[in-house]
């Protein structure tokens, strides 16, 4: 996509093409419900339909957010700026190398995706989302549909409130949700 | 209390102003290089960070170097980055540090390989700095690896993290450290502090978030001993904030006075930091002037040497 910046293959940070407000609105359309859960379960039983569906998700989210198909979408908690487009794929906020002008240390011509995430989240009243602790990714989900995973409840526990019950939240998710 | 208790944990526990420095392992397998650097610091600092392939260039491993530092009579702070290891290797090295009796670990995201001597390497970043801190605390306090399997014995190091108070988004920097503290960080070292006003603002945010009650803040400092180093900091290292007054002051003295002026500034910064409530210590990153650390520490009047020198042992009663 925007790889004209550098000969390097490192993922450059992507500034979303959809405003934060519109993104949050879009999310309400996709919010998990019984119907979606049934659709998701059906898709997983039909590999060809699943591939087609995942392809659609890939194209639309790539266009809008630079989606990397990690399969565990963090967008709703990051002001809809994709942290997987950070060259270090940081899920919990910016690294210490952001330039005084808010630029990425690896791509000094591009804004740090976390600076963009912070601005978008704060401006739309979702700033507190950035304080959530994002658990380590399950790399096996790469390339899979995060919408299906979300509708089937597998995303629950992807992030946790830093003050959850015990002041020190557990690293492991409480219970593994329905598996394939 | 005639014999002062040494080490980072005891300094922090006692509320004594802690001093740490940095030992960069060499590009080579000569153990004496590390030992010599450690001997220079012995008695002057509470602990020394051992950097992990600093600047993304290949060096003697930080775990091996930490053992050498320990043998030379200094408490090491093992630095571990997410750049070169996946979660299996990171947990394994953390357990290794536990087994070898390394008393402190400092967990970082790490520089991108772009900045080093192997830009063609695969950047790993399987975990980020916050997650690595979380993993370390789980290993130590829950006695379990990420998979949930229990450990036969738990490690017992102090968990450290880093933060850059000066990088954008400024209003998020205290909150980012709060995440690391929620994940398990007990002390935090900062990027070079050249701008005390901005540092104070960050510290105020930390106070408001209640972070300073749970985590000892150790401010990063260093002597700028030439205009070349000044330029290097400005352009060669990501994330360093140099206010204009620092540059004015260094350019305002004759060329042969720059080194002395840089050291003076570093000493003054340490002394000012020692007066700030909530600052638990300083971390001296000597910028190639490791041999000068004892002088800086002595002139600033901080560190274990001061404690040893005082007859009543009450020196440096700083609150943190």
Detailed description of the structure:
The complex is a heterodimer of chains A (180) and B (320). Chain A has 180 residues and is mainly alpha-helical. Chain A has one domain (11-159). Chain A has 5 helices and 2 strands. Chain A has helices spanning 20-30, 34-45, 47-65, 113-123, 146-151, and strands at residues 133-134, 159-160. Chain A has a two-stranded antiparallel ribbon with strand order 1-2. Chain B is an alpha/beta fold and 320 residues long. Chain B has one domain: TIM Barrel (Alpha-Beta Barrel), CATH 3.20.20. Chain B is built from 12 helices and 8 strands. Chain B has helices at 8-14, 31-41, 62-71, 87-99, 129-142, 173-183, 196-208, 227-235, 244-251, 258-274, 293-300, 304-309; strands at 18-23, 47-50, 76-81, 104-108, 158-163, 187-192, 216-221, 279-284. In chain B, strands 1-2-3-4-5-6-7-8 form an 8-stranded parallel β-barrel, surrounded by 7 helices. In chain B, strand 6, helix 7 and strand 7 form a beta-alpha-beta unit. In chain B, helix 4 crosses helix 5. The longest helix of chain B is centred in the last third of the chain and has 17 residues, at 258-274. Chain B is globular. Residues 311-320 of chain B have low confidence and may be disordered. Chains A and B meet through helix 4 and strand 1 of A and helix 5 and helix 6 of B.
């Amino acid at each position: 996509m925007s790889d004209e910046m550098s000969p390097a293959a490192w993922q450059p940070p992507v500034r979303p093409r959809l405003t934060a407000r519109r993104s949050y609105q879009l999310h309400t359309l996709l919010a998990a419900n019984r119907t979606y859960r049934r659709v998701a379960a059906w898709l997983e039983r039909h590999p060809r339909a699943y591939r087609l569906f995942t392809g659609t998700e890939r194209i639309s989210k790539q266009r809008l957010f630079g989606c990397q198909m990690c399969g565990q979408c963090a967008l709703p908690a990051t002001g809809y700026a994709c942290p997987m487009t950070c060259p270090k794929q940081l899920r919990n906020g910016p690294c210490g190398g952001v330039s005084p002008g808010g630029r990425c240390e690896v791509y000094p011509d591009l804004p740090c995706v976390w600076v963009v995430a912070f601005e978008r989240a704060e401006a739309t009243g979702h700033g507190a989302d950035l304080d959530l602790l994002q658990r380590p990714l399950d790399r096996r989900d790469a390339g899979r549909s995060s919408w299906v995973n979300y509708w089937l409840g597998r995303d629950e526990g992807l992030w946790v409130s830093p003050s959850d019950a015990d002041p020190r939240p557990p690293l492991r998710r409480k219970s593994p949700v329905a598996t394939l | 209390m005639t014999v002062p208790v040494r080490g980072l944990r005891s300094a922090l526990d006692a509320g004594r102003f802690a001093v740490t420095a940095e030992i960069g392992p060499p590009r080579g397998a000569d153990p004496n290089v590390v030992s010599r650097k450690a001997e220079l610091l012995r008695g002057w600092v509470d602990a020394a960070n051992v950097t992990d392939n600093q600047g993304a260039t290949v060096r003697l491993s930080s775990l091996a170097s930490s053992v050498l530092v320990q043998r030379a009579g200094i408490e090491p702070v093992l630095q571990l980055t997410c750049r070169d290891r996946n979660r299996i290797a990171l947990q394994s090295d953390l357990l290794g540090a536990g087994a070898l009796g390394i008393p402190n670990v400092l967990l970082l995201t790490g520089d991108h390989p772009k900045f080093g001597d192997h830009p063609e390497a695969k950047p790993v970043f399987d975990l980020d700095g916050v997650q690595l801190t979380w993993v370390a605390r789980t290993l130590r306090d829950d006695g379990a690896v990420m998979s949930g399997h229990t450990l036969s014995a738990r490690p017992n190091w102090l968990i450290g993290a880093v933060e850059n108070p000066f990088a954008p988004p400024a209003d998020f920097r205290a909150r980012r450290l709060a995440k690391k503290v929620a994940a398990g960080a007990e002390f935090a070292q900062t990027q070079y502090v050249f701008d005390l006003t901005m540092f104070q603002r960050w510290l105020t945010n930390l106070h408001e978030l209640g972070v300073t009650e749970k985590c000892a803040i150790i401010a990063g400092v260093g002597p700028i001993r030439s205009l070349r180093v000044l330029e290097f900091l400005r352009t060669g290292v990501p994330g360093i904030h140099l206010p204009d007054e620092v540059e004015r002051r260094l350019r305002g003295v004759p060329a042969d006075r720059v080194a002395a002026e840089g050291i003076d500034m570093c000493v003054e910064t340490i002394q000012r930091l020692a007066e700030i409530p909530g600052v638990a210590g300083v971390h001296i990153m000597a910028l190639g002037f490791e041999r000068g650390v004892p002088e800086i520490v002595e002139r600033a009047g901080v560190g274990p040497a001061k404690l040893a020198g005082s007859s009543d042992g009450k020196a440096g009663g700083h609150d943190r």
